Amino acid sequence: MRLSQVIDVLEALYPPETAEDWDAVGLVCGDPDQEVRRVLLAVDPLAAVVQEAVEWDADLIVTHHPLLLRGVHGVAATTPKGRTVHRLITNATSLYTAHTNADVANPGVSDALARAVGLTGELRPLAPSRADPRRGLGRVGELPEPVTLREFTARAAAGLPATAGGVRAAGDPDRRVATVAVCGGAGDALLDDARRAGADVYLTADLRHHPATEFAELQGPALVDAAHWATEWPWLADAERHLHAGATGKLETRVSTVVTDPWRLHDEGDK
């Protein structure tokens, strides 16, 4: 397939016009006429991911997070991002990003997260899009049968890739959990949406101390906090399946298992 054809498939799944105004999605680096045989999918366009792509001889990297989210005035190889751009071009490796347009897609990032932590039934957006209520941020659904918060936290940890920070929970460990709200990535902006949705627990990433403690005092849903990278990684396999389904030619794909979560150590100290 030509790169332009692969992009057509991706943009049918994750329309660029549904991305936030501040976002930077789409083709970052590459020639639309380039032939694509191998596609690597990853969360972050970091040096280790580009190294994996080069070693595998990938023609295209599809990432969730943008490489150049903020404006730049140059891509000199003296900077990390500049070195990444140079390495991509030198190895004829294209880079494409689907970020907030993948967050609000149906199915999107939070659908994959919901399935990874055990939700099996129908899902609905936690914060529906005004333009299309079938799309939106986050998802709400039901577990096959109620479990305790302790059990759900263990299930989430088992369903997500391991990171140094692990998975932590706020709330009564024996609390009954049946209705679950999730949001891949940083989701504390949707705390009130989770409460209004009647969720027993809200799973997301990057929860900050003050919003979390204040929310807990409202006696709303319990909170489960996982690593940002870990909550978005399940989407890669989902995007891979849909890419194959829409492909008009032969593609070889791989989901990167490189852990790009920035935290590497976790020490609970002396007990």
UniProtKB/TrEMBL annotation:
InterPro entries associated with the record: DUF34/NIF3, DUF34/NIF3_sf
Record flagged with keyword Transmembrane helix: no
Superkingdom of source: Bacteria
Record flagged with keyword Metal-binding: yes
Keywords annotated in UniProt: Metal-binding
SUPFAM superfamilies assigned to the protein according to its UniProt record, in alphabetical order: NIF3 (NGG1p interacting factor 3)-like (SSF102705)
Subunit structure: Homohexamer.
Entry similarity comment: Belongs to the GTP cyclohydrolase I type 2/NIF3 family.
Name of the protein in its database record: GTP cyclohydrolase 1 type 2 homolog
Organism: Actinomadura parmotrematis
